Amino acid sequence: MKVLVVGNPIAGGGQAAGKIEALAGLLRAGGHTAEVFLTAAAGDARARAAALEPGTDALVAAGGDGTLNEALNGLREPFGMPIGFLPAGTANVTARELGLDGTPEEIVRLIDAGAVRRIDVGRAGARRFLMLASVGFDALVIEEDVRRRRSAHRFVRFAVPIARALWRYRAPALSVAVDGGPPVSGTLAIVSKTPHYGGFFNLARGARCDSGLFEVTVCARGSRAALVVYALAALCGRMERLGSVRMLRGTRVAVEAGEPVPVEVDGESFGTTPVTFELAPGALPFLAPP
């Protein structure tokens, strides 16, 4: 097989470089043709995936969840060949949800066995995502983070953006409609395909990457104290027990507001409301154990 490895060598504090080299070596030793493309700047993974040559049998993204998302957004549709993920970032949420052990050896075993799962792909306009999208406070944090991405460690990096977002924060008035149903009012809306968010939070325990549905969390209260309560509840996996939280399911989520409210998609700033999220069930063939 011809395999393209698109990797971010500085992911995980530089640990990704060794894993990428090991994967390429294992692939070649197993009789596969392996091309390695190393990214140097944001957008490189997307551009390389968009320029994929005919005859490529699989693409493996190596790095963090952001590298995987970039590669996904570069691929042409319909998705014909499988995509794989060699996790080497900080949170690696996608790998956790798919049951990947994160080793080069596993990727080779999956390729040799033809182990492919069909997973769902979310869309916000032309942007695709695998994990989640949100509107409200956490998107404001991402917006602040974009202005000052200098720290190498993800969790330390977010301390200042969170503080700045809290200072700027004014509770928005969101209207969230799922599958054309009656709108639900809230101040924070999270559209999930995986239970976990950021490696710490368990927002929607019923979310699955191949369920064919979004799990939608709408939080009604908008005070700073309420944000703390929601964060603590998410840490404990008990969001659904709060009376001010609505949990909904569907394949199309439309979010509107009286004024522009920040939106994020898979941890990247996307823009502002209004926004519509749509789901393509089982659209992506992914190298993963059953």
Explain what this protein looks like in three dimensions.
- The chain is of the alpha+beta class.
- The protein has 2 domains: 2-114, 3-Layer(aba) Sandwich (Rossmann fold); 129-281, Sandwich (Tumour Suppressor Smad4), CATH 2.60.200.
- Helix content is 29%, strand content 33%.
- The protein has helices at 15-29, 44-50, 65-74, 93-98, 104-113, 137-146, 154-157, 159-168, 224-235, and strands spanning 2-7, 33-38, 58-63, 83-87, 116-124, 127-129, 132-135, 174-178, 184-186, 188-192, 196-197, 201-202, 214-219, 245-250, 252-257, 262-265, 268-272, 275-287.
- The chain has a 6-stranded antiparallel sheet with strand order 6-5-18-15-8-9. It has a 6-stranded antiparallel sheet with strand order 14-13-10-7-16-17, with helices on one face. The chain has a 4-stranded parallel sheet with strand order 2-1-3-4, sandwiched between helices.
- A hairpin with a 3-residue loop joins strand 11 (196-197) and strand 12.
- The radius of gyration is 19 Å and the shape is globular.
- The chain starts with a strand and ends with a strand.
Q: Which secondary structure elements does this structure contain, and how are they paired or packed?
A:
Layout: E1 2-7, H1 15-29, E2 33-38, H2 44-50, E3 58-63, H3 65-74, E4 83-87, H4 93-98, H5 104-113, E5 116-124, E6 127-129, E7 132-135, H6 137-146, H7 154-157, H8 159-168, E8 174-178, E9 184-186, E10 188-192, E11 196-197, E12 201-202, E13 214-219, H9 224-235, E14 245-250, E15 252-257, E16 262-265, E17 268-272, E18 275-287
Parallel strand pairs: 1-2, 1-3, 3-4
Antiparallel strand pairs: 5-6, 5-18, 7-10, 7-16, 8-9, 8-15, 10-13, 11-12, 13-14, 15-18, 16-17
